[in-house]
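Section 4.2 – Deliverable D4.2 (structural model, holo form)

The reporting period included a commitment to supply a predicted holo structure for the target in complex with DQA. Inputs used:
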Amino acid sequence: MTKILVIHGPNLQLLGRREPSIYGRATLPQINRELTRLARKLKVALTFLQSNHEGELVEAIGRSGKVYRGILINPAAYTHTSVAIRDALEAVGLPVVEVHLSNIYAREAFRHTSVIAPVARGQISGFGTESYTLGLTALVGLLKKSR
Ligand code: DQA
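Output (structure tokens):
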């Protein structure tokens, strides 16, 4: 079965309690359950990783090429800062879809730049939990077309 790596960046373990007016009330386990349900319908298998450590994310991405066919990632704050994560995604060469719960372009200016977007096939921002399900659907669509 097609395997997809789902990466949640820093502070996303706090979802549900963290600024619910911005990020909603869904917790990370709830989001992962929703993705698992969708993955069953799309006939793909998901592996989830949440980390607050840039190096751990870089290493996981670096190892992902042999196992996974694509990466769904919410890089969280690293979206705006991490050349290391961007370079790891570029190096591994898998199709990447970037997602954000909030609309990063409607927030502070420092969130308007994603260093990840240029190495992603596309970005979905602003739809809460649905950003993830839309992102997974888009990623699986890309993989089917490339087969
Ligand atoms: C986020 C947006 C980022 O700017 C922020 O640092 C996050 C979450 C989102 O999902 O809306 O932690 O990626």
